[in-house]
Amino acid sequence: MPTLGKKMIKIGIRLLIISYWLFIPNYSAAWGFNAHKQINNAAVFTLPPELFKFYKAHINEITDKAVNADMRRYTLADEACKHYLDADHYEKITPIDTIPHAWKDALDKYGKDTLNAYGIVPWQIELIKYQLTKAFESKNLYLIIKLSADLGHYAADLHVPLHSTQNYNGQLTGQEGIHSLWESRIFDLFYKDYDFAVGRAFYIENTNETIWNRFSQSFAALDSVIVFEKLATEKYPDKYVLQSLGRNTSKIYNETFCNYYNQLLNGMIERRARASAELVGSLWYTCWVDAGQPNLSNLKYETKEDEDEKEKNFFQTLIEKSKMIGRKDE
């Protein structure tokens, strides 16, 4: 393909993405568009020198692709369940000891339909971790970048308390909108003050145990997320303001309310974002070590043009469909 043709495809993809985010209203999925990018970006700087060089060279791709897992929810019916686990369907409080932590045991106990209905994020992380390890072994540059971005996304979702409950958007307690409030609105207002220097990535000896420990922390924090929003609403009942974005006008939480809610949370969102970046970097590092610490210098795309075309078609389909499959606020 001529160089000009390649450039036009890339420009077209970017324009499709920009137009999508400008004109599809009320998007609120996972950590939020900006948060997932910031977390993946911060995770790169946790890596040891021998791995940092590779990830730093591809930091823009890994950062940009941090949201692809959410975009797939507009085209793939089986994507949504990979982002959450409704722990309160199975048990009400920590410790999480009713749900088997091993996928095979959970499958034997509940069956695939039930597990998919209430979410599979811990097991999805283990699956992508395995796939990324294999990608390192084969030195497949395209898959390393794609799976690194996806692993970062799912691991970050693991740290969100509202990803651990059937009341994921406050719809069961009269608090509709709390999902985007916690994950997107608060983060976007305050993330520039967050400290994303989270230290060095570590080798994870027991991935399953580490994943479930992090998820248990999210589940344990759920009550605070719900109760403090109620307290903030009591103090500031007029908590919304209208915002115009492109051709759309939407209702968002005003800054006074957000400030007070953030104070009640006492840094929870920053702590969960920092923990996300730490775990993401550690998962990447663990995959690389488990793959035998391959030399990643001078890797080249083998099917870049084909993948560019697939990505272009994917985003075109997403924009034409413009309707999330499954939970629209999850």
How far is the N terminus from the C terminus? 40 Å
CATH architecture assignment: Orthogonal Bundle
Measured as a percent range, the helix fraction is: 55-70%
This entry's quaternary arrangement is: single chain
Looking at the structure, the CATH topology is: P1 Nuclease
Query: How would a crystallographer describe the biggest sheet?
Result: 2 strands, antiparallel
Report the strand count: 2
> What is the 3D shape?
globular
What is the CATH superfamily?
Answer: P1 Nuclease
CATH class: Mainly Alpha
Counted by DSSP, the helix tally is 14
- Provide the residue-averaged pLDDT: 89
Question: What would you call the structural class?
Answer: mainly alpha
List the helices and strands and how they pair.
Blueprint: H1 3-23, H2 33-44, H3 49-57, H4 59-64, H5 68-71, H6 103-110, H7 112-118, H8 121-138, H9 141-157, H10 178-190, H11 207-235, E1 240-245, E2 248-253, H12 255-265, H13 268-290, H14 304-321
Antiparallel strand pairs: 1-2
Brief rundown of the structure:
This protein is mostly helical and 330 residues long.
How would you characterize this protein structure?
The chain is mainly alpha-helical and 330 residues long. β1 (240-245) and β2 (248-253) form a beta hairpin. α2 (33-44) packs across α9 (141-157) and α11 (207-235) packs across α12 (255-265). It has one domain: P1 Nuclease, CATH 1.10.575.10. The N and C termini lie far apart (40 Å). Helices cover 59% and strands 4% of the residues. Strands 1-2 form a two-stranded antiparallel ribbon. The radius of gyration is 20 Å and the shape is globular. The longest helix is centred in the C-terminal third of the chain and has 29 residues, at 207-235. Residues 11-28 have low confidence and may be disordered. The chain has helices at residues 3-23, 33-44, 49-57, 59-64, 68-71, 103-110, 112-118, 121-138, 141-157, 178-190, 207-235, 255-265, 268-290, 304-321; strands spanning 240-245, 248-253. It has 14 helices and two strands, in the order αααααααααααββααα.
